[in-house]
Amino acid sequence: MQIRTFFSEGDLLVAEVQSIHQDGAASLHTRSLKYGKLRNGLFLAVSGTGGGGGVVRSRRQVWTVSTGNGGGEVDVVLGVNGYIWISKHASSEAATTQFSITRLEETVSSSVYSSQNDEISPETRREIARLAGCIRALVEAGVRVDEEMVMRAYDASLDIQHDSMNDDSIESPDYLGGEKGKKNNELA
User: Fold this and answer.
1) Residue partners of 60: CB distance under 8 A and separation at least 6
2) Which stretch of DSSP H or E encloses residue 84?
3) Secondary structure (3-state) at 34
4) Which residue stretches of the chain have pLDDT < 70?
5) pLDDT at 157
6) pLDDT tens-digit profile of 130-178?
7) Which of 6, 13, 108, 147 could be joined to 113 by an S-S link, Cβ 3.0–4.6 Å?
């Protein structure tokens, strides 16, 4: 199968790198439904990959977060190249829809390879932004970015928000930079 049938230049996608050729071209795999075009989310590129700070290789690079504040489920993809994708949870429509086996390719193609974003609630957008802020704060502090640290920082940010609801001296509950970011990292 030719990848150009489903993707265009400039599309954001998640795929396995099968091999890199001498001319610099890469052979990619998108062989299951967990790979494909990235939609309904936020792209984040961070520096400091590997070593102590930045994105590090871990047990899981892709996971789903059950967010607070009515944000629903959010997917996080941490690329070891420092590219991060945070998006509204992509539920598998094909798994819940009844269709004939002859329509499998058509059904999967329309949902996985579509360029049209879905409607995203303000609560989900806020939690996507909160996760991005947590990751930025971890990178600023030179802390490793993996599932464990992102989740610890996210939980700490929810605690800070709860604490700041009654404290007018603290800046916006959505902002995780400066002193608030440092406090968030200390709690994580």
Assistant:
1) 147
2) strand 83-88
3) coil
4) 1-3, 31-34, 49-52, 92-113, 165-182, 184, 188
5) 92
6) 999 999 999 988 899 999 999 999 999 998 887 776 665 545 555 566 6
7) 6
Is 126:112 a contact under the CB 8 Å cutoff? no
* Cα angle, residue 183 at apex, residues 179 and 186 outer, rounded to 5°: 140
Which of 17, 140, 147 shows the shortest CA–CA distance to 75? 147
Length of the chain: 188
| Distance between CA atoms of residues 107 and 101, nearest Å | 10
Reading the block at residue 81, the tokens are: 């190249």
pLDDT value at residue 172: 54
Query: What does 93-158 look like in DSSP terms, one character per residue?
Result: HHHHS---GGGHHHHHHHHHS--PPPP--HHHHHHHHHHHHHHHHHHHTT-EESHHHHHHHHHHHH
**What pLDDT score was predicted for residue 53?**
76
**How many other C-beta atoms can be found within 10 angstroms of the C-beta atom of residue 114?**
12
Residues 6+ positions from 187 with CB-CB distance below 8 Å: 152, 156, 159, 160
Question: How many alpha carbons lie under 13 Å from residue 118 in its C-beta half-sphere?
Answer: 17
Residue 136 is which amino acid? R
For residue 72, give the amino acid letter. Answer: G
The pLDDT assigned to 175 comes to 56
From residue 151, alpha-carbon distances to 25, 28, 52, 101, 148 in Å are: 35, 29, 17, 39, 5
